[in-house]
Each structure stands twice: as C-alpha cells, then as structure tokens.
Amino acid sequence: MVKIEQLNIDIETYSEADLPKVGVYRYVDDPSFEILIFSYAEDGGEVETIDLTDKSSQLPAGVLKALTDPAVIKIAYNAQFERVAIGKMLNKTLDPSQWHDTMVVANELGLPAGLGQVAKYLKIDQQKDTRGTQLINFFSKPCKPTKANDHRTRNLPADDPEKWSLYVSYNRQDVRTEMAIADKLKKFPVRKSEWDLYAMDQRINDRGVGIDVKLAQGAIELMNGLNDLHNAELKQVTGLDNPNSLLQFKGWLKTLGVEFKTLGKATIQAALEEGNLPAVVQTTLRLRLSLSNSSTKKYLTMVNAQCRSDDRIHGLLQFYGANRTGRWAGRLVQVQNLPRNYMNPTQLDIARELVEERDGEAIELLFDDVSDTLKQLIRTALVPAKDKQFMICDFSAIEARVIAWFANEKWSLAEFADNEDIYKATASRMFNIPKTDIDKKIRQRGKVATLALGYQGGSGALIAMGALDMGIPEDELPDLVTSWRKANKHVVAFWKEVQAGVIEAIENGGAQRMSKGLKAFVKDDFLFIQLPSGRRIAYANPRLEEGDYGYRIVYDGQGTHVGFAKLETYGGKLVENIVQATARDLLAEAMLRLESAGFHAVFHVHDEVVAEVNLDADLAQMEAVMCEVPQWAKGLPLNAAGFTTNYYRKD
C-alpha cells in the first residue's frame, strides 16, 4: 500500500441544528447529524467522492486509517468543521495537531475569509461552484412541510436525484478549489510555530467552558417578562397594534413632529442625550431600546449552543480571525464584547441568586434596573466544571508597553519596569506636574491620552475613547494631543520610521529594516512586515498613490462591507497593526507555556487568559509563566496579575 502523506477533505452534512446560530460543536452534537458526502484527494491526486447516504458505500480503509494517523496531514478549508464533524462520526476527538487549515494560510496573507472570495481574488482556475447555497439549503437543512412536498420535513437524494447529483459534484469541486488555493499560496508557507498555535487554539475550543444553565434560563425568563411588559406599555402609549413595526412607529413619531431616517441604537441614544424630544417620545424610545437589547440575548445563545453531551459551549474563538494582526475573533457569545460588570463579587453573588429565583422585584429593589443587572451578569453565566475554579490572568497595559518598547521611549519603559501607574506618569510628563501632585482629574487626562493617542490619533480618537463623557471639555482636546506627543517624541518618530520604511519598500523594493528587528518588504504582490517573533503580517496588492501630503499607502483588504475594497493606511495605523500583532504573539506564546504548566485555557479575551484549574492551583505560578519574556522581546517589561473565581467576571 502506498503511504499517504496528505489528505485534502471536504464534506457535506445534515443537522436540524442551525449552524450559524449554535456553532459546529452543537451542530454535530444534535441527534439528527450525519455526514452526507465525503470528498478527498490523496497527496494532491484526483478527487474521490463517497456518497455516504448510499448505505452500500463506506470510506476506504486507507482513508479511515489516515484520519487518525499522525504521519498524515489532513487539510481542509475552515478545517475545524471537518475535524469536529468527522470526529463525531468516528466517535473520537481528532488530534488538531494533525490538521492544517487553508483558511489560516489565506488569513495570514490578509485575503478574504470565504473560500469562494479567496478563489475569486486569486483568479485561480478552479472556482467555487456558485450553486452551493441553494443545494445546502435543500439537502443539508430541514425543510418546511407543504402540500407540494408531501409534508416532508427533510429532502433526501431520492426526492430530487438531479439536484443530488449536482450536490455531489459541488462537494467534489470544493476540494479542487481548496487544493488550487493551497497550490497558489504554497510559496507563503505557514510557520510550524503557527500550526502549533492553531492546534492549541483547537484544543481550547474542544475543551469548551461550562454554562450556568439555571442562571441563563432565569435571565431569559426575566428578559421575556420585561419585554412583554415594555411591549404592553408601548402599545398603550402609542395606540399602535404593532409598535415593533418600524413603519408604524415612524409614522406615529411623525404625527408628533419627530422624524428619524433610521432608528438604530446609536441614533436613539444620541437623540435621547440631546434631550430635545417631547417626554412621550423619550419614553417610547427608551422602551424600544430595552426591547432591542442584544446583550441579554447572549443568554439565549449560551443555552442554544450548549452541547447536550457535556453541558458545555465550544468554539467561542476563531484562530487568526483578525487577519491584519493575527488576533483571535469571538464567535457565538462573543466573549470579547461582553458588557462589563461593575458590581463587586458580593453583589454579583446576590444578583445571581435572585436571577436564578426569577425574583425581578427584589432585583429592582436592590439594584434599580433589572435589564442592567442582567447585562452585568452575562459574564458570570460562564462557569468552571464541578470541583474546579477559574484562574484569570491578564497582561497589564500590554499595548502601551509594547509601543514604548518598539519606540525605545525610555521614560515610560522605566515606569513600566518599576510597575508604576503609567497614567499618572504620563500626566506628569504632559503637564510638568510631579507625580505626587497628580489628582484624579489630571490622571484621567493622562489615561485617556495613553489609551487614545498611541497610533497617531487626534481629537477624534480622544472623543472615541470617551474623553467628553469623562467631562473633558472639547476645546482642551487639541492641547492634550500636542502635550502627549511632546511627552512621547520617540513614539512619534516611530510612526514616521515605519511609514518611511513601508513607502521605500513599495517604491524601490528591498528589505527595509526598522526598530527591534522589524523588516518591511514586498514579495509577489504582498507587502510583508516581519515582526520580532519572526511572524509576518501582510497587505495584499500594496501601492502608492499621490495624496495631499505626499504618498498615500493603499492596499486591498476587508472594508466595512462584504467583499474586498481599496483601503488606506499610514504610519500610526501600521504601528497599531505591529503593536497589536506583537501583543498577540506574546499572549499566544504565554498560552502555550501555560498549557505545558497545566493551566488549561477555556477561552481568552484580548490579553486575558481564563484557565480552568484545580482548587489548589498556584496563582503566583500562573502569573510568573505569563510574565516570562521571549528571547525575541528582550527588554520588554511585562507584568501580569490574576485572581481566582467561581464564575467569569472582571476583577
């Protein structure tokens, strides 16, 4: 038998679970799940397709063996789906270290995430079959029973043999497309260290995290009760049959002399803050806001996505989801975008108990606002396994430390090395006031400047960071920008260094070397910036265009809408990408070390790691492991602090 080294795979499946809403783990955990079609190619050869709905068909013995053979690399586009689904079919967890994901290769190069979009952008010969969505909807999802389909709830191959034949061909073509993409990008191989991180990421997603179902269901019941109450109030105030109808509600507002083009959350909040609306309109708008609260809907996501086989939710993170920096992206519950809790642990304990008891009156009595209480408790619905605890540890001011390190801003590096209050120190430098004399008001200015201005932002960046909400007058903002830049001259110089290096690389070629081993160069229509870790961030089709102040740097990337668009970047934005990518590398390597030391992450958020550990685990050890500085980051003053808890929360 010829030894297989590589197996390219694509599958089509069926499940009654809604994949986008519940994720792949819950999708395959559904009793209705099955693999319908399995296409594969051995070592880049011809694509073979097995119709598993034909009970006389089965996977060849060689393919079955290869699926668990550590010497065979399994490759798929968005490989988590294939690995988890095939593992379910085989009733075992497949080792992610044996899998490579072509989507990761595309994301590393800053290309579109979707298979069809990548194929189209790269102009490869083997394009994705555009009939896929229609075929998936027909065969891979339940159907609505009608008289025309004899009231069936699922379409089988025998119900439309012609369509089924197309579906089999579609699946086979996906393997060809994936292989063509991989072949096109083979000159840009992903480093082994990144595949190690990918495997770690998959182990974290496989591990999952517990859900406090009693709390989540109590919150859902209270939320539904509030919605019913607010709906009734809206009907009474407006006299409308359906005040949730945008058309009806806008018409009612118009009768009061108030017109809105849109009624999005931001628009309503801005109008309420201005305070120029009639009282009855303010009341109805607040009621609509409460009904559209997406935060508390996360409880529903938790319950719906929880796997029945282990009572945990899986797949909360996507590796390389932010393809400009390589950072992770949140999925399902969106752990990177949860409302912050401001209650202390004692208050959280009381509020959690009241929600579990569905005692809305007591919540309102103790905490004033039921809706806000439910929002603050969302984090706490993520819980460790029985006889375990969460150990939560995060880097302190990581981006400010990294940018100071790159720029060699010695004063701030010294403050970080001594673990001083960087916001006080910044305010002291900005306003020439001794640190001992910095009061809360002045420190606040140092804080917002530190958080907002590191990437060449101006007054707009301060406003976006909440400067006006903090009570800082708008006419003070330009002076804050000037003062911060004077206090951080080396950071300003770093923006200019990076911009000049990138322009030189695009215009004249060659490798342009910059601070801390950074290197910018262009290869095969990609601008690469090599980081100190050795990883590279990429910009597709980089070019220079004439601008009002010299060259503009433009490239192809994901804009605010679906599809690729021409984007512009500049020194400060490039520095932001470099800093965040470096912070990502520090976190990723720290998680590998933590895993080796027995601190197993169940998820992570920005620069924070949430590990599920034994009750006697050593917090100081976790903090120490986090603070180990890689050889490539010598001189970077890291600091991390943590705490233990019986549910996820902010300290």
UniProtKB/TrEMBL annotation:
Q: Which reaction does it catalyse?
A: DNA(n) + a 2'-deoxyribonucleoside 5'-triphosphate = DNA(n+1) + diphosphate
Show the InterPro entries listed in the entry. DNA-dir_DNA_pol_A_palm_dom (IPR001098), DNA/RNA_pol_sf (IPR043502), DNA_polymerase_A (IPR002298), RNaseH-like_sf (IPR012337), YprB_RNase_H-like_dom (IPR038720)
One Pfam family this sequence matches? DNA_pol_A
Gene Ontology molecular function, alphabetical: DNA binding; DNA-directed DNA polymerase activity
Q: Which GO terms describe its biological process?
A: DNA-templated DNA replication; double-strand break repair
Give UniProt keywords alphabetically. Answer: DNA replication
> Zinc-finger among the record's keywords?
no
Where does the UniProt annotation place the signal sequence? none
The Enzyme Commission number assigned here is: 2.7.7.7
Q: Where is the DNA-directed DNA polymerase family A palm domain?
A: 375-617
Q: What is this protein called?
A: DNA-directed DNA polymerase
